[in-house]
Amino acid sequence: MAVDCPRCGLVTARFVDHCRNCGYKLWPSGEMASAAFQAWRDADPGTRSETSRYDLEVPVVVENVVDYEALAHQLGIHLFPSSNWPFVICFGFLLLGLAAIPFPSVARIALLVVGGIIFLVGVVGWVVIEDVRMFPSDVSTPGGEQHH
User: What range does the domain containing 18 cover?
Assistant: First the structure.
């Protein structure tokens, strides 16, 4: 995709009408350079489809797939599994906060009770249910020793 400029010898893009360094006219017109680029690109659309006429090289598509869990395990970092319980806790806390606004007393008590129940369900779900699922309890063996 790059050519040497006939005047200055520096590398410049093949399908631009002027050299980027010295301004030497490489193509008779910009339209002709654009038409030549489109014909070149259409000759092999599989590998040249992402190419611009200003590129010096054909871009290489690199699949950047990273397994972060394996990388963290290799580095000794513990990643916690994702959980939806913090959203439940925040919603309960929102209702508890709304109970502090001077609404009529029946609405405040209802918001307080419902918000408190949702908040407690979220805390129990996150701390107890997620914790038990993530760290199962050790089962003792018949000899009285615990298996680790």
Answer: 2-48
